[in-house]
Design a protein that fits this description.
GO terms for molecular function: 4 iron, 4 sulfur cluster binding; metal ion binding. It holds the Pfam family Fer4_11. Keywords: 4Fe-4S, Iron, Iron-sulfur, Metal-binding. The chain is α+β, with helices and mostly antiparallel strands. It has one domain: 2-Layer Sandwich (Alpha-Beta Plaits). Helix content is about 20%, strand content about 20%. It has five helices and nine strands, in the order βαββαββαββαβαβ. It has a three-stranded mixed sheet with strand order 8-1-9. The chain binds iron/sulfur cluster (3 copies). The site of one iron/sulfur cluster has 14 residues, from α2.
């Protein structure tokens, strides 16, 4: 059984927003909402200006509060660890939006169901391709793969770096990990 995960290296991200554009195109995300954002934080002033970038999206919790609170089981987990939403059974109650500590969900203005990042399982990964955001990143700041494959690149990167897991004190066990900006990242 696969266990999908992603690593975002803050040191490599240049904030180009290519990942966001690719996600919107691949997953047909409507205007006004987004499955991911890349935030920027500026410090100092020119010529001593420093910019940090930070990905913001579903962190694909192993212990998912969004799934626990869903009254219709429209939010559910696949065996490979990806949290999905069945828009046909989502009643738009927004319990999951309130329960998500990562502010990762939104109401799709067209379907009126809740939506979020799916690691592109339904659009790309299920057929063997990388997620859209990963495939376009010009600096390889995003790494995606199977944690259960001991020969996978993500296992190698994970073993060679100190990983940070957002809000891990909540016990949600995220599968989106960060390699912190060694020049002074700002997350949390
Ligand atoms: S495509 Fe890569 S470099 Fe560009 S903003 Fe996204 S993660 Fe950062
Ligand atoms: S980040 Fe939010 S939407 Fe994603 S699995 Fe965790 S609780 Fe659910
Ligand atoms: S994995 Fe897919 S759905 Fe998630 S942010 Fe990247 S492109 Fe969007």
């Amino acid at each position: 059984m696969k266990k999908y995960a992603m690593i975002y290296d803050e040191n490599l991200c240049i904030g180009c927003q290519g990942c966001l554009v690719a996600c919107k195109n691949e997953n047909k995300v409507p205007d006004g909402v987004s499955r991911l954002e890349v935030h920027s934080n500026m410090k100092g002033s020119f010529p001593n200006l420093k910019i940090d970038f930070q990905r913001h999206s579903c962190v694909m919790c192993d212990e998912s509060p969004c799934v626990d609170v869903c009254p219709t089981h429209a939010s559910f987990k696949l065996d490979n660890g990806i949290t999905m939403i069945d828009e046909r059974t989502c009643i738009g109650c927004k319990y999951c939006i309130l329960a998500c500590p990562y502010d990762a969900r939104y109401v799709d203005p067209i379907t009126h169901a809740v939506s979020k990042c799916t690691f592109c399982f339904d659009t790309r990964v299920g057929r063997g391709d990388e997620p859209a955001c990963v495939s376009v990143c010009p600096t390889d700041a995003l790494i995606f793969g199977d944690l259960n494959d001991e020969n996978s690149f993500i296992r190698k990167v994970a073993s060679q770096n100190s990983l940070s897991f957002p809000k891990q004190e909540l016990g949600t066990k995220p599968k989106l990990a960060f390699i912190k900006n060694k020049k002074g990242g700002y997350y949390e």
